[in-house]
Amino acid sequence: MNLTDLLTSVEIDSIRPNQLKKELDNIDIKKIAYHTKEVAADTLFVCIKGHQTDGHNYARHAAKQGATVIVVEQFIEGMDVLQLKVSDSREALAILSSNFFAHPSNSMSIFGVTATNGKTTITYMIDEIFKAYQLKSGLIGTILVKIDKKIEMSRLTTPESYDLQQHFAKMRDHEITHVSLEVSSSALELKRVHNTDFDVVAFMNISPEHIRLHESFDAYFDAKASLIRNASKKSTAILNLDEPLLIPLEKETEAQVVTFGIENKSGTITVSNIQFSSGIPSFTVSILKPFNTLSGKKIDITSFDLEMSVPGYHSIYNALTALVTGLVNDIPIEDIQQGIKKFRGVERRFQMLYDKEFKVIDDLLLNQNNIDSCMETISHLDYNKLHLVHAIRGSNGPAHSTEIAESLTEWFHKMNVAKIILTTAPSHAAKNDEVTDEELAAFLKVMKQNNIEVAFFKGLEDTLRFGVKQLNVDDILLISGAHSMDQGAKKTLELLKEIHPKVDHESIDQVLKTKLIGMDPFKVAEKI
Questions:
Q1: Are 136 and 172 in contact (CB under 8 A)?
Q2: How far apart are CA 172 and CA 375, in angstroms?
Q3: 283 phi and psi angles, rounded to 5 deg
Q4: Quick one: average pLDDT of 499-522?
Q5: What CATH number was assigned to the domain covering residues 351-527?
Q6: pLDDT (tens digit, 9 = 90+) per residue, 493-510?
């Protein structure tokens, strides 16, 4: 691709050298890279600044590898290679990537959701609706990237802009028509989704979970809110009115806004007649105000019932988001109902690993909202005793450990939990997830203050073994924690067969057969 076309819409502040040996439209670019290991001949290399590294430090190496053009935020002295100076190299990378792949997001209906909790579940539920209507769909998120039936595991919740546009291009080439995308606050702040043509955007909830990645809660909120504020006139924005902070955003976007609430009845959509059967909700949806589909058709005032297959009050919010997304994409209500009913959940999001003589559940419990949703869901289940195995989340500071411990103890007293089975799982934690002595001490301090007994094991397997041994008929074992617990489900299910040999082996093997998180990468590749 010639450089002039590639630079369309990129604001260049200045160029070095000033006297070019070649005109820009005579320079051919065969590749874009932001990491030197991806550089080859005729590459345009973009220097982006990360939390730990700065691409400007690797520009000389990129030139030696064959980069012929370097995009910088400040010129690098002593380099005999064309440098293009921009004010924001991340924004430039997003525009360049979209140009390079010929604006692939324009070819599909793109749904993007931001929230502290529920992004993954919502995208999976919407994908189930797309499949129910027999659409060729794609999904990009925390767990995986799916292109129709092809899957690869994810490294970031929202990929870097070049990788994102490359995924879109592959989807376009595979004739994908509808895509669901998780949009993290970091992705918004770091311009990863800049120049993506969103058709539907949603902001569902917010709590102080990822403030450490931002300057303040206000900065965290503004990052997420930018998905709504920057939505185009032709798009639809979905807002949850039961989150008071989100209400003003209705007047801060050019998009058509569709709102819903369970407690707040003033929006476009509300629900009534909520019933729970073994914790699984069914309810009546009422559309109180008409709105338009993406093709311009009118959705009239009406009401209908929705039945779900996943438990929890919070699941109703996820279903309403998925419902609106389906409706504005011109999907009939009957297919939406079918997709929501067929949706069985997501790995590590209140995932029922075993449900026979006792229950085994896997959830993250990463923040107060996550804990509240999980425990509220369990409160609707019939059980004898609740046993909790928890892997502390590291590298978030003692204050975060205290908050998590306090949130847990509030529920312990309500649900008559007298003991927590605890681990730091150092052998299963990446370097940036390791638990410090201060974080462990802060957690244990709260437990002691609330008279909660702690059974502490350093290793993950020893912790899970102790938990599985506690199980009796009609009990629940809840395994929880961040990435250090990713392999917990596999190990727990193996221990179930060892310690309780009369369990349903076929049921356990079926779960292991479909698992992706925490499994051997070669086995995952075989499944994919």
A1: no
A2: 41
A3: -165, 170
A4: 87
A5: 3.90.190.20
A6: 999 999 999 999 999 999
